[in-house]
UniProtKB/TrEMBL annotation:
CDD domains (UniProt xref): ENR_SDR
Domain of life the protein comes from: Bacteria
Keywords per UniProt: Fatty acid biosynthesis, Fatty acid metabolism, Lipid biosynthesis, Lipid metabolism, NAD, Oxidoreductase
Molecular-function GO terms, alphabetical: oxidoreductase activity
Entry-linked Pfam families: adh_short_C2
InterPro entries: Enoyl-ACP_Rdtase_NADH, NAD(P)-bd_dom_sf, SDR_fam
Catalytic activity: a 2,3-saturated acyl-[ACP] + NAD(+) = a (2E)-enoyl-[ACP] + NADH + H(+)
Top class in the EC scheme: oxidoreductase
Pathway(s) of this molecule: Lipid metabolism
Species assigned in the record: Paenibacillus oenotherae
Family: Belongs to the short-chain dehydrogenases/reductases (SDR) family. FabI subfamily.
EC number annotated for this UniProt entry: 1.3.1.9
Name this protein carries in UniProt: Enoyl-[acyl-carrier-protein] reductase [NADH]
Alphabetized PANTHER family for the sequence: ENOYL-[ACYL-CARRIER-PROTEIN] REDUCTASE, ENOYL-[ACYL-CARRIER-PROTEIN] REDUCTASE [NADH], CHLOROPLASTIC
Length: 254
């Protein structure tokens, strides 16, 4: 039962119970989706397994997105277990903390490459391998932030990587539409997670949102989860290549 009954969805990017991917998983599970979670390394395996165990019928598989062979083996296991895949939730990003303060102008070649590899290219690396499993049509989504469009203090190289990610969403949507696969992104307002810890002055960013966002509050993860559920469902069938803001309106006033 539910809007996602009978759908198999891959969720990448759960690190702990505060992760946006975890809130998305809750919303998807509530609508009857069958979920496969990935974990980046043994370091987080136990934590992800414990979380996944709370959602009956879900499975967990390893995948560090910087390694092509790991994505290949993920996809072959999904093919074996599910046959057909209906959705992909990509909620992964990384940059070295030293690149997330001071001037963007100081970004190193290695820091730039790493941030783009994990935060932008990984969407394409996974999408190019999973869309052939989406034989009944599919929905792919990723997570982005306003720093893709505006030069926000301290967001630096991650903003440049998010701009590449958002452009990737449009190009992937253009390519995969012929296979009835949609590709979109959610641009979320700031949420206190592990990844957010890396961003300097995060508290003042939250305060600014509370003061200026039209709805006068910060974004709750469940708001992102429910929009992700909509994007994974038939309800959003006419939407592809879009960046959808779930930020209580902050981007329109900034
Ligand atoms: O305010 C926020 N928290 C916002 C986050 C606002 C708008 C967008 N986002 C985005 C982030 O940029 C990211 O794309 O949402 C996505 C999810 O972020 P999150 O939920 O805030 O952060 P977190 O719980 O840390 O999940 C990101 C995870 C990694 O966690 P850690 O903290 O261990 O790096 O991405 C995963 C990992 O689980 N990840 C990887 N997965 C596979 N392979 C890799 C990798 N190489 N690197 C990081």
């Amino acid at each position: 039962n539910g809007l996602l009954a009978g759908k198999n969805i891959l969720v990448m990017g759960v690190a702990n119970d505060r992760s946006i991917a975890w809130a998305i998983a809750q919303s998807l599970a509530a609508q009857g989706a069958r979920l496969a979670f990935t974990y980046e390394s043994e370091r987080v395996e136990e934590r992800v397994r414990k979380l996944a165990d709370t959602i009956p019928g879900s499975i967990i598989l390893p995948c560090n997105v910087t390694v092509d062979e790991e994505i290949d083996s993920l996809v072959s296991q999904l093919k074996e277990q599910y046959g057909v895949l209906h959705g992909l939730v990509h909620s992964i990003a990384f940059a070295k903390t030293e690149e997330l303060e001071g001037m963007f102008a100081d970004t190193s070649r290695a820091g730039f490459a790493l941030a783009h590899d994990i935060s932008a290219y990984s969407l394409t690396a996974v999408a190019q391998r999973v869309y052939p499993l989406m034989t009944e049509g599919g929905s792919i989504m990723t997570m982005t932030y306003l720093g893709a469009e505006r030069a926000l203090r301290n967001y630096n190289v991650m903003g440049v990587a998010k701009a590449a990610l958002e452009a990737s969403v449009r190009y992937l949507a253009a390519d995969l539409g012929q296979f009835n696969v949609r590709v979109n992104a959610i641009s979320a307002g700031p949420i206190r997670t592990l990844a957010a810890k890396g961003i300097k002055d995060f508290n003042s960013i939250l305060r600014q949102v509370e003061e200026r966002a039209p709805l006068r509050r910060t974004t709750e993860v469940a708001e992102v989860g429910d929009t992700a559920m909509f994007l994974m469902s038939h309800l959003s069938r006419g939407i592809t290549g879009e960046i959808i803001y779930v930020d209580n309106g902050y981007n329109i006033v900034g």
